[in-house]
Amino acid sequence: MLTYKAMYKFIGEEGVHAEVLDFPGTISFGENLEKARASLASALVDMAETNLLKGENLPQPNPQATSAEADIEEPIHLLLTAASRVQIIPELIAL
Fold first, then answer.
1. Within a domain: residue 33?
2. Residue 85 domain-assigned?
3. Domain containing residue 56
4. Cα–Cα distance measured from residue 49 to residue 58, given in angstroms and rounded to the nearest whole number
């Protein structure tokens, strides 16, 4: 498990801007804080999977990351699981 730093900024009545400060490009939005958190968690998984599929390393978490624009900063955890994509095809039986 890797722990990154999430930030949330309330944008008036429009909703909540969400961003992972120490994982570049991981940005999302939600109409409220709960939806912004869920959307950002999904975006973080998508970005991590994309990096790995491209053979790129994941950014190192920076617990010191901060944003002067943030209304809320909190940890966001990334937990990836490995899966096999092997398909087993039964042997054909000769008659």
1. yes
2. no
3. 2-78
4. 9
d(CA 63, CA 54): 26
Rounded to two decimals, the pTM is 0.83
Place of tokens 């990334």: 78
pLDDT in tens, 54-83: 999 999 999 999 999 999 999 999 998 876
Q: How many CB atoms lie within 10 A of CB 44?
A: 21
CA–CA distance, 88 with 19 (Å, rounded to integer): 41
Q: What CATH number has the domain bearing residue 8?
A: 3.30.160.250
Tell me the percentage of the chain whose pLDDT exceeds 90. 82
Quick check: is 57 in a domain?
Answer: yes
